[in-house]
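Work Package 4 report. The design task specified in the project plan requires that, given a folded chain encoded as structure tokens, an amino acid be chosen for each position. We show below one input record used in the internal validation round.
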């Protein structure tokens, strides 16, 4: 049984969002930490979020994780029988 294209895209989509929320806090400095805050803004607001870099890193990291997962699936490491036995479920 092989993945269909829609299943692979759905897995990648969910993985991409999980990796995005994981990478969001890296490299962010708040106005309080930086010492430069605009009047009337929250001191915890980021000075520069650098979202372009975060989106690029998210795409690269999720692509590598997805590729490793697909390789493991095609090698037979991630099949339903093995995973159900690992979790103690009858197949």
């Amino acid at each position: 049984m092989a993945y269909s294209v829609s299943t692979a895209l759905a897995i990648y989509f969910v993985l991409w969002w999980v990796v995005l929320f994981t990478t969001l806090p890296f490299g962010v400095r708040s106005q309080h930490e930086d010492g430069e805050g605009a009047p009337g803004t929250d001191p915890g607001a980021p000075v520069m979020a650098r979202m372009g870099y975060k989106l690029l890193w998210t795409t690269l990291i999720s692509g590598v994780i997805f590729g490793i997962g697909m390789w493991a699936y095609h090698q037979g490491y991630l099949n339903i029988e093995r995973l159900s036995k690992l979790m103690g479920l009858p197949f």
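The chain is about 60% helix and 0% strand. Validation will be extended to a larger panel in the next phase.
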